[in-house]
Amino acid sequence: MKDKRRNYKEKFPKNKKRPAQTTESEHLQEADDNFVFGHHATVEALQAGRGNKLFIQEDAHSDKIDQLKSLAKEHAVPLKWVPKQKLDTLSDGGVHQGIILAITPYEYLSLDELLEKNPKESEPFFLILDSLEDPHNFGSILRTADASNVSGVIIPKHRSVGITPVVTKASTGAVEYVPIARVTNLSQTVQQLKDAGFWIFGTDMEGTDYRKWQVNGPIALIIGNEGRGMSAGLKKEVDEMLTIPMEGHVQSLNAGVAASLLMYEVLRKRSDLT
């Protein structure tokens, strides 16, 4: 691959009446739209100032519960003790650990905002998730992205999982630390990144062995859909394809596993780890 880099360029429905008073069940229904559950995710959301109301199982008592009560008080977040059945309903049967936090909607960045946070001199490394659909995969990727110092994640607005309660819990709170941009068109986004001096990489069965990957300068890595892989349109925009050699019988790795391996390869090379 050429060493020459591109020049970096900075660049409630209407007319519907609300009830005069909101009942407890209505509060819980509102929480169902925007909430996180589980201890770690709740702590991170409270510390990030995104809490609206904290729901705790009425018979829950522990040091972790005391920590959450203190955090809620510190951030002026009201607390409500509720039956376990209410929490089971809100979490859709998920492992809520007796804790659910109603939160403000997640605020995505624009691509320009993400670029402003990551100047060329810092050699940013972005992940582009091409229509990822599994919230557990997305949450796992965000968790690894935080651990491996990824500069930001880019997702499409349509036909892709966004920041949901399951994603937040699977990320164990990493969603509060990894900048996430949501864009309308991934092909246009890739072109804008190229104009900004980024080299674009993808993954395929055939390509350069990832261990020979040149990771200097601003780079972006596309991770394809769990079943379909990378879209044909985006493949045409890629500067270089990377492959992960395998000796077993399966043809490909899980999207989250492949992304994690490649994220740590960048960290290893940029940190001079052996």
TrEMBL record:
Domain of life per record: Bacteria
InterPro entries: rRNA_MeTrfase_TrmH, SpoU_MeTrfase, SpoU_subst-bd
Domain RNA 2-O ribose methyltransferase substrate binding intervals: 35-109
SMART domains in the record: SpoU_sub_bind (SM00967)
Residue spans of biased composition, Basic and acidic residues class: 1-13
Pfam families for this protein: SpoU_methylase (PF00588), SpoU_sub_bind (PF08032)
Keywords: Methyltransferase, Transferase
Keyword Methyltransferase: yes
Region described as Disordered: spans on this chain: 1-27
NCBIfam families noted in UniProt: rRNA_methyl_3
Family, per entry: Belongs to the class IV-like SAM-binding methyltransferase superfamily. RNA methyltransferase TrmH family.
Protein name per Swiss-Prot or TrEMBL: 23S rRNA (Guanosine(2251)-2'-O)-methyltransferase RlmB
